Amino acid sequence: MRKKLFKYIQINVVPYLMQLFVRLIYLTNKKVFHYPDNIIADESYVIAFWHGDLLMQPLHYNNFRPNGYMKAIISEHRDGETIRKIVRYLGTGSFDGSSTRGGAKAMIGAIKALKKGEADVAITPDGPKGPIFSIADGVVVIAQKTNSKILTFSTIPTKYWMMRSWDKFIVPKPFGRIDFYVGEPFSVDGLELEDAKKLIHDKLMVNQLDK
Fold first, then answer.
1. Other beta carbons less than 10 A from residue 80's beta carbon
2. What angle do CA 89, 203, 40 make, to 5 degrees?
3. Coil, helix or strand for 101?
4. DSSP 59-100
5. What digits encode the pLDDT tens for the residues 14-54?
6. How far apart are alpha carbons 25 and 19 in whole angstroms?
7. CB of 155 closer than 8 Å to CB of 50
8. Which of 110, 182, 190, 197 has the smallest set of CB atoms within 10 Å of its CB?
9. Measured distance CA(108)–CA(38) in Å, rounded
10. Mean pLDDT over residues 66-87, rounded?
11. Quick one: which of 32, 45, 28, 27 has its CA closest to 207?
């Protein structure tokens, strides 16, 4: 009974409260957006950001592409189910699966969505278990299979809490300033796997908090 209650709270109550908390942070911070000019309105992109920087990205995306739709690759475990519900409240869809569980299904779904132009696909290249700032193969495979360009998303808050997790998860504090960055779109077509991973890593590290 206690386990069932805990699961119910984790899956149903926590996501609702967390999305309210994320909205509160977003609303109470001064927001400064740094966006590239060469974004094609009807083009779908692969969107990459670090696992520790994912909290504000759904609302960031909503501002960046108010008429767009983003779907994220999220792991198929209980924590993943909680995260799926949180981001759904914030307007982001999901593909079930990650590099450690359900990966093939998620990759197929992401590739189909990009080829059909149904959604931008979000992925944390170092998730769900790290190590921090590592690049898994999936982001390269998805981008190359669909000839999609990659956009890097990042946020830099002036006031924040840093969790003691493997990804040093960042939670911005209210009543500060958050700078939201989107990098210039780039392609990894024709690159060898390791060269593509290094390029993505270097692009993601351009606007990054010291951790």
1. 20
2. 65
3. coil
4. HHHHHH-TT--EEEEE-SSHHHHHHHHHHHHTT-EEEE--SS
5. 999 999 999 999 999 999 999 999 999 999 999 999 999 99
6. 10
7. no
8. 190
9. 28
10. 86
11. 32
How far is Cα 120 from Cα 61, in angstroms, rounded to an integer?
A: 10
The full set of domain ranges for the chain reads: 2-204
Q: Check residue 5 and give left, alpha or beta (phi > 0: left; psi -120 to 50: alpha).
A: alpha
Q: With b meaning 16 or more CB within 10 Å and e meaning fewer, what string describes 113-126?
A: bbeeeebbbbbbbb
- Closest among 58, 95, 55, 54 to 75, alpha carbons compared: 95
Is the Cα dihedral 169, 174, 177, 180 positive or negative?
positive
3-state secondary structure of 183: coil
Considering only CA atoms, which of 91, 89, 29, 63 is closest in space to residue 181? 63
Task: Supply 77's token pair.
Answer: 């475990």
Rounded Cα gap, residues 22 and 55, in angstroms: 7
Question: What whole-number distance in Å separates Cα of residue 138 and Cα of residue 114?
Answer: 14
Q: pLDDT at position 61, please?
A: 98
Spatial CB neighbours of 153, under 8 Å, sequence gap ≥ 6: 47, 48, 49, 53, 57, 60, 61, 122, 180, 181, 182, 183
Whether 67 contacts 88, CB under 8 Å: no
DSSP H or E stretch at residue 48:
strand 46-48
